[in-house]
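thread: overnight batch results

M.L. [08:02]
morning all. the overnight job finished for the chain we discussed friday. pasting input first so we're all looking at the same thing
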Amino acid sequence: MKYVVVLYDGMADMPVPALDNKTPMEVANKPIFDSLGKKGEVGLVKTIPDGMKPGSDVANLSVLGYDPSASYTGRSPLEAVSIGVDLLDTDVTLRCNLVTLSDEEKYEDKTMIDYSGGDISTAEAKLLIDAVQEHFGSDIYRYFNGVAYRHCLVWHNGTTSLGKMTPPHDISERVIGPYLSDSENAADLLRMMRESYDILKDHPVNKKRVSEGKRPANSIWLWGEGTKPQLPLFKDVYGLEGSIISAVDLLRGIGGCAGMSTPIVEGATGYLDTNFEGKAEAAVNELKNGKDFVYIHIEATDECGHRKEIQNKVKAIEEIDNRVLPILLDALKEYDDYKIMILPDHPTPLSTGTHSSDPVPFMIYHKNDEKQGVDTVTEKTAADSGIFYGSGVELMKHFLS
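M.L. [08:03]
and the structure it wrote out:
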């Protein structure tokens, strides 16, 4: 038996006036996804435990069958593991975004123009993070390069009691002052954020970007604090050898901590320009090489939700249907039996541009146990089915049963 999960990050949504009060899932042309839904099981699952924030870290741990309330130690430690940082038990890590802020004189008066630093490339970002490390690096603080706008700070002998360290994608187009921590423990981190603006605004990378009509990545933004992860191995929990295919450090870090393989896909970016076919082919290769379980994480739907890009979110759903699912299903034909599950980890509504904790639709298709499903898989048809799982752990146990 082979098990495949295709995770459309942030796909679930609310009705959108510009889409005739339909959701992107309802509007998107997704014939392959819907064809599986016609013969599969469709329902809802609650991926965010009560009292926890609806981040992709918590949500993906849940979908993978881990209880976040027991295993979650923060987002950034998972990303740190992915980029090869050897953490000590006394280390605290923080996600370090490269962001675009407006040019008001006082830092607190600036507006969050772009949480992704104008879609900065990994090569450009490396030069900026190197400059930040050169200025702030010490025996206490060390900055590490990640992918695109996503990077990491390791704080030796730090604390996670930092007050309000707000995710930048939650405050797009807002003045940042009210979202900065007032905790004394975070004072040094806030100092580095403020000073980074003066370091980065006139950096040659940003001068070149501005001359090309691009947004400058003119500040760091620290958030997502946590400590060294303690995650049981996926094989020990579920008895299967697994792989995670993803462009983002967070998912690769979860995979590494869970003892799963995390192959690198050339051209995988986390946005619409990602190498969709490459991700599918990497998953196929993992199955051929003996893996029982493959988790394919696709970020584009979430990014479009954060950016409030209505048509692009629809397009992202369609691109996965056109460029990922055909490759997977063609390869799965050679196996005597398989299951495929398609779902988002959490909603990223276009109306808010940030995550919510609402239950999400899922679809499970089992080759040798076809069912009477639904004509099209949407938030509404999933809710109308009456099938509901109260946690990702419950759903994963059901999927693997």
